[in-house]
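Data availability (excerpt). The following record was deposited with the supplementary files.
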Amino acid sequence: MSKQRFYVIRVALIVALGGFLMGFDASVISGVVRFIGPEFGLSSLQLGWAVGSLTLTATLGMLTAGPLSDRFGRRGILQAAAVLFAVSAIASALAPDFVTFVIARMIGGLGVGAALIVGPMYIAEIAPPRSRGKLVSLNQLNIFIGISAAFFSNYLILQWSQTDAAWVQALLLDAHAWRWMLGVETLPALLFLIGLRWVPQSPRWQIMKGLQTEAAATLNRIFDEADTQKQIADIQRNLATDVGREKIALKELFHPALRLVLIAGISLAILQQITGINAVFFYAPMIFEQSGIGTNAAFMQAVLVGLTNLAFTVVAMLLIDRLGRRPLLIGGMTGIALAMMLLAYGFGSATYELSAEGIQSLELPAAVAVQLGSLQGVAHASDVAFRQALAEVLGEDAALAHGPDIVVAAITINPGLILFGILAFVASFAVSIGPVMWVMFSELFPLRVRGLAISVAGFINSGVSFLVQLMFPWQLATLGSSFTFLIYGLFAVAGLLLVWKLVPETRNKSLEELEVELTKAKP
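Predicted structure:
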């Protein structure tokens, strides 16, 4: 490997740590929701806010990161994102109340939005053209590695917290496991911040600011002298084109010629989230606990979710140019619909009944155990009915604090069916609409409106993601697990029909050919 190639890869890997932190920060909350509900006495909607608040400010970060990076530099914004990740990790771990916790998570959301936009932008601007695609994909791959790492970290901390080791007690890991789950993110955030010291400014930004000598020095570490001068000339020409380019008005997106691609793009943006992917990623242990396997097993199965997502994302990257976009979307949406219907059936067939042995197996206060005696031998056909009975017998606070453990003791269900359904859903998503949506965004929209169209579609995608995260705990508490997953399955069926009807195949066609074909423009 040449010295120049090694340098570019090293810089790209450092910048891609922002993607790792984004995935970690977004998914680490999955292990925390089990504990913060009783800790802060949260309602189902408050729990949804604790999870979804990060996505809300991530959207703001995405909208502002680009313009700020033009003013202060790509590296400066990435450094700010690293600081935001560290501050959020520490503040959320130490949060004394719900409001402080939400504010801390929202601070992290700003870092997520900045890393999502500026990281790939920086890598694309510094990478040689022949390896740009692979290097930019490092950031996306690191997001999924971060998601898997968060699931595994949560599981590991939970296991440690249940040991009698002296260091566990000294660090208060036994009493504050969920705080350590959040706080451990400080380490990769500081590593990211330190690593950015060895990352140069983007040469495109340097030329934009009139720092041509500095830009040449940066490019000389990547290219030969002749290639460096060519890169500088290309950047200057592109910048001149950007300056002279007329700004695109939002109303241009609604031109009749763009109707097909706009409907297709927005449909994909909504479908990617409304089928429930972030309900699974952000609440995985909670979902698995609903199947009665216990907290430890639920956290372990969440690790499988992360690994499945990572593996099938790689499969999608290998197949997308071989099979095409439509086959992956149609196959994936079919799998999502079937998996959600299977989950609806699995939870719908569950029954809930407490036995004397089940009550004795629970580590409950004596008064609570006595109160549960009135539910002994009483069968309930749904999780909603059983939780309502718990709340009536124990009171809202005690039912919230002890409910998950009591459900484990009472439920009769096939947990293997639930695990298979969740993993099948994640695999179907990761091999289809998860990565394919972003690829098609770059292909569907004509060049003139592409940037604005992708921003609008991304904003809608984030908005739907926030609503799914916010509403999922309320759906479980009010509608029940079976009906909630049935709703997601019906959305997937509708999505399959929309993809079949509206979404064109874009494989093996140039962007210019697609523009002529999809907008009926004159070549």
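Summary of structural features: The chain has four domains: 1-199, 212-244, 250-349+416-523, 351-412.
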